[in-house]
């Protein structure tokens, strides 16, 4: 799917998505712990890249981080601004971030890379690297599985990734992987979180 097709697919189901997945209270406690621990040592601006309706952006904002949210889908940005008026949100594409080189200390990409095809992903990771300072931190949430294999996502075509695949792609983009954590919940796809640092 093209980026525009993904945008349209999410826009058509934005209200449903927000109702089902837009509450921080409904996410797994391990995810809250993981993201909190990742953000704690970061001093300076963080981007929630692919923020959806903004629940993670607001979660970290409440913890005192300097964070803003970005999403491709205008419906999500409108909703996020209404729900969390004290947090900055903007519409935009991860393929072409309207930010200066080295302007961020951290990027949270929490399941926001899953709709990029294997052919698109290297350029997206390079764009994330561009806007991070050296030693800037990246946290990627994804579904763990056969690298590049498609699966039946409810909204738009999505892809599994593996730790080995992402580690290699991130290295080529200018990152070093720090660690990977995986989780298997009953009745769901395997989850994973990869933390990396900008060289």
From TrEMBL:
What's one GO BP annotation on this UniProt entry?
methylation
Identify the keywords attached in UniProt to this record, alphabetized.
Methyltransferase, Transferase
Q: Which InterPro entries match?
A: Methyltransf_25, SAM-dependent_MTases_sf
SUPFAM superfamilies to which the protein is assigned, alphabetical: S-adenosyl-L-methionine-dependent methyltransferases
Domain Methyltransferase: residue ranges: 46-136
Origin: domain of life: Bacteria
Supply the Pfam families for this chain.
Methyltransf_25
What protein am I looking at?
Answer: SAM-dependent methyltransferase
The source organism is Arthrobacter psychrolactophilus
